Amino acid sequence: MIRYLIIIEKAQGNYSAFSPDLPGCVATGKTRATAERNMRKAIGMHVRGLRHDNQPLPEPRSFAEYVDIH
């Protein structure tokens, strides 16, 4: 199993999502849940395309943390 970080951002009127480890793989959605679901589909298509072209899958290298500010 490979796990890729996705970032979901609120935009004007919708949400956008991307993965730092998969350049060019993006998705949008009217809600956060829809953007996440669409991003899962986009990653699946992206990975299938790489495999079809006999290309290596990018190694996940991104991490996320929250920082508390007092």
Oligomer: single chain
Low-confidence stretches: none
Proportion of helical residues = 25-40%
Helical segment count: 1
Reported for the largest beta sheet, the result is: 3 strands, antiparallel
Structure characteristics:
70 residues, alpha+beta, three-stranded antiparallel sheet, 1 helix, 3 strands
Describe, in plain words, how this protein is organized in 3D.
It is a single chain. This protein has 70 residues and is of the alpha+beta class. The protein has a domain at 7-52. It is built from one helix and three strands. The chain has a three-stranded antiparallel β-sheet, covered by helices on one side. The N and C termini lie far apart (38 Å). The model has no long low-confidence stretch (mean pLDDT 96).
What topology emerges from the helices and strands here?
Elements: E1 7-10, E2 15-18, E3 26-29, H1 32-52
Antiparallel strand pairs: 1-2, 2-3
Gist?
The chain has one helix at 32-52; strands at 7-10, 15-18, 26-29. The protein is of the alpha+beta class and 70 residues long. The protein is flat and about 45 Å long.
